[in-house]
UniProtKB/TrEMBL annotation:
InterPro entries referenced in this protein's UniProt entry, alphabetically: Flavodoxin/NO_synth, Flavodoxin_CS, Flavoprotein-like_sf, FMN_Rdtase-like_dom
Domain of life per record: Bacteria
Gene expressing this chain: pnpB
Co-factor(s): FMN
Native organism: Methylophaga muralis
Key word Oxidoreductase present: yes
Lineage: Bacteria, Pseudomonadati, Pseudomonadota, Gammaproteobacteria, Thiotrichales
Coiled-coil region list: none
Protein name: p-benzoquinone reductase
Signal peptide positions (record): none
Amino acid sequence: MKIAIVFHSATGTTKQLAQAVAAGASTLADVDVIQAEIVGTDIVEGRFRNSNLLQQLDNADALVFGSPTYMGCVSSQFKAFTDATGDLWAEKRWADKIAAGFTIGASLSGDQLSTIQYMQVFASQHGMLWVSLDIPGNFDVEQRNRLGAQSGLIAHSMDGNVHETDLITAHYLGQRVASLAKRFTAKQ
Ligand SMILES: Cc1cc2nc3c(=O)[nH]c(=O)nc-3n(C[C@H](O)[C@H](O)[C@H](O)COP(=O)(O)O)c2cc1C
């Protein structure tokens, strides 16, 4: 079972969430977790050119997407990555893989949900199966999912520090993706 977390992070907060997702996924037995970071040098003349990273994702059973919210959507670096998957889309290479997503913004309600919804549409374009968060916000006894989105994890940081509750929620998302990916592939 391979789970890849593919993310972009300029100032490190999305990366902290990615690490928490990876730690959560790694708690399950027989799960191999890859953290695939999109960096500036992957993009040449506006196009994402890291074919090794795409190959890593191709080999994974589940993909978790992470991006900061920039101007109400994914960052341009993350979008360059998604645009580079067009050939894989045409070949249905990622169809039936499990997918999920997380994002962070500097505002409490800075349109982070729009970022998650883009990721969900992107996953659907590939025929992937979207995994929601399944934590009922304010009703959760551990107070996880403090910002209350259900489609994916949205987080908030004003100073570069990621709220402990957001990291715990990210850890849970990683566990949930790994658990569902194991169940789904076992039935195939
Ligand atoms: C160009 C730009 C656009 C941004 N747009 C938003 C936004 O629409 N909503 C929001 O809440 N935060 C916005 N932010 C803040 C970032 O999402 C926030 O600082 C985030 O933690 C950065 O993630 P990173 O540390 O992984 O780079 C923006 C930041 C930048 C640089």
